[in-house]
Design goal:
Elements (H helix, E strand, L loop, with lengths): L4 H7 L6 E4 L3 E5 L9 E5 L11 H22 L3 E5 L15 E6 L19 H10 L1
Antiparallel strand pairs: 1-2, 2-3, 3-5, 4-5
The structure holds guanosine-5'-monophosphate and zinc ion (ZN).
Zinc ion binds next to helix 1.
């Protein structure tokens, strides 16, 4: 997709600081890093979200996320990572080509992604679980 900036990075049409390439994935530094070594791992094929990545591509892609995480560890020695992705515009997705943020953390005792939530009524758990199971 020529209008997708991450497809353009994958094809070499747009410059980025590449850190890793494989037949299934490309990894490059986030242009506006949240921490040193903040890396984005993208599938070579255009898929807007995880739901659009073919099932037979998922294993290879996430294997490369693991490789990149190990490489960042070896280079920068963070104490931990947040690894994940924004799925959909209302969850903060701005680039609609699936990308996993590999975000190194350098200070002990950091908060996890749950810190973004506002909590909920614990009494609803069984109802919610049943709804998801039957969907
Ligand atoms: P999202 O909010 O979609 O999960 O994250 C998109 C990420 O892509 C952001 O963290 C943003 O800084 C990064 N980004 C946006 N445009 C570019 C670009 O042209 N090059 C690189 N390397 N990163 C970009
Ligand atoms: Zn794309």
């Amino acid at each position: 997709m020529s209008d997708c900036i991450f497809c353009r990075i994958v094809s070499g049409a747009l410059q980025a600081h590449l850190v890793y390439e494989s037949p299934s994935a490309v990894a490059f530094l986030d242009r506006f890093p949240a921490a040193p070594g903040h890396t984005l791992v993208v599938p070579r094929i255009h898929a807007e979200t995880l739901n659009d990545l073919p099932d037979d591509a998922i294993g290879d892609f996430f294997r490369e996320v693991k490789v990149v995480t190990r490489k960042v560890t070896g280079a920068l020695h963070p104490v931990a990572f947040n690894i994940g992705w924004n799925h959909g515009a209302d969850a903060g997705q701005r680039v609609f080509h699936l990308h996993v943020h590999v975000l190194p953390r350098y200070s002990p005792g950091g908060r996890g992604v749950q810190a973004m939530g506002s909590g909920g009524d614990l009494g609803e758990l069984s109802e919610i679980a049943a709804a998801i199971r039957s969907a």
